[in-house]
Design brief:
Shape: globular
Strand order of the largest sheet: 1-2-5
Largest sheet: 3 strands, mixed
Helix content: 55-70%
Order of helices and strands: HHEHHEHHEEHHEH
Distance between the termini: 41 Å
Number of domains: 1
Radius of gyration: 19 Å
Number of helices: 9
Strand content: 5-15%
């Protein structure tokens, strides 16, 4: 498999920390002996998503500006993606890979499934709000890819509770699908950036969607 398709979606320390939080969450579910079926399905989805988050599947390519190869950047590129051929360095544009993170894809599939259990009107309202917030705050940074801050999740949470007091399904589906749509729209900026690859749901997004899962899990306690 080519370099860049398998990589941690965040720093090693953060990735391990989220893994420990996931283990503690599983322990709490077992300790409180919750009989809620949805909580066990969600923790399974989060566990699978966590493990698969290190894999990015290529879906397409896009023309971008060639990277500026300073000494630090050269080391970064060589370590993660291998050397860049000379003809690409001298070109005005290069073809960058657009990948989809498989861990995020697991979350997306589960969010789509939850649409069958979510009130349509409430979903449309919260999904629109979530997408608008993420689109405003998300962007693409050179050498990193799509960047999505964590805190918008906490702006959406009160609206979710207000719209539906039993809001675990509503919150998860709206937040995850809103994150997906905003990431797709963010790719429009790729032509003006100096990138080798962009991972949808990967580095820059992992913390956002994993915290969405953790917050949703709190609804079951």
């Amino acid at each position: 498999m080519r370099k860049g398709l398998i990589e941690l979606p965040t720093t090693k320390k953060t990735y391990i920390s989220y893994g420990l939080i996931l283990i503690v969450s599983i322990g709490l579910l077992l300790y409180y002996q919750t009989t809620t079926y949805g909580s066990y399905v969600l923790i399974l989805v989060m566990s699978i998503g966590y493990l698969l988050s290190i894999i990015n599947a290529p879906i397409t390519k896009a023309k971008t500006l060639p990277p500026k190869l300073g000494e630090d950047y050269k080391k970064f590129i060589k370590k993660r993606y291998g050397s860049i051929r000379k003809r690409n360095r001298d070109s005005k544009v290069i073809e960058s890979n657009i990948n989809l993170n498989l861990g995020f894809l697991v979350f997306v599939f589960y969010a789509i499934y939850l649409l069958t259990k979510t009130p349509p009107m409430e979903f449309v309202l919260l999904f629109s709000l979530t997408t608008a917030i993420y689109m405003y705050l998300s962007g693409i940074e050179s050498a990193i890819g799509i960047i999505t801050p964590i805190y918008p999740v906490f702006l959406v949470l009160p609206a979710s509770i207000f719209l539906n007091t039993s809001s675990a399904n509503l919150f998860f589906s709206s937040a995850i699908l809103g994150l997906l749509v905003s990431s797709i729209f963010a790719i429009r900026e790729i032509k003006q950036k100096r990138l080798i690859t962009v991972n949808i749901g990967g580095r820059g997004n992992f913390e956002a969607y994993f915290i969405i899962g953790l917050i949703t899990l709190l609804f079951f306690f």
